[in-house]
């Protein structure tokens, strides 16, 4: 009886691994796009939502759409450096979004 319980437990444990939700940290971006995570830095003076690269460096976006302002959201972006150099936040490199996926 104990052997049947152990076998059942092992089978259920292994099958649950097969049906787990796909981990969003493995999202890959198409060529020409950079993978970033949306982070909320509103606790810093003048900052709001920013984009964090894998190396932990940050991008400050001039106008981040409301639909992207969700902590932890992983997106792929194409961007250009901002022509405006001044920033109140000064938390990262200023960019303008060209495309988002």
Overall pLDDT: 83
| Integer count of domains | 1
Number of strands: 5
Strand count, sense and barrel status of the largest sheet are: 5 strands, mixed, barrel
Helical residue percent band: 10-25%
**Rg, nearest Å:** 20 Å
* SS-derived structural category: alpha+beta
Strand content: 25-35%
CATH topology: OB fold (Dihydrolipoamide Acetyltransferase, E2P)
- Order of strands across the widest beta sheet? 1-2-3-5-4
Poorly predicted sequence stretches spanning 5 or more consecutive residues: 17-22
Distance between the termini: 53 Å
Give the helix tally. 1
List the helices and strands in order.
HEEEEE
CATH class: Mainly Beta
**CATH A-level architecture:** Beta Barrel
Structure overview:
By secondary structure, this protein is of the alpha+beta class. Helices cover 17% and strands 31% of the residues. The chain has one domain: OB fold (Dihydrolipoamide Acetyltransferase, E2P) (Beta Barrel). Strands 1-2-3-5-4 form a five-stranded mixed barrel.
Outline:
The protein is α+β, with helices and mostly antiparallel strands and 101 residues long. 17% of the residues lie in helices and 31% in strands.
């Amino acid at each position: 009886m104990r052997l049947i319980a152990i076998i059942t437990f092992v089978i259920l444990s292994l099958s649950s691994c097969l049906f787990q939700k796909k981990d969003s940290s493995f999202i890959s971006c198409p060529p020409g796009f950079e993978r970033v995570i949306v982070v909320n830095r509103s606790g810093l003076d003048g900052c709001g939502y920013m984009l964090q690269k894998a190396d932990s460096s940050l991008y400050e976006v001039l106008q981040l759409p409301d639909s992207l302002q969700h902590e932890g959201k992983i997106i792929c972006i194409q961007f250009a450096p901002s022509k405006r150099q001044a920033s109140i936040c000064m938390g990262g490199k200023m960019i303008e979004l060209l495309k988002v996926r």
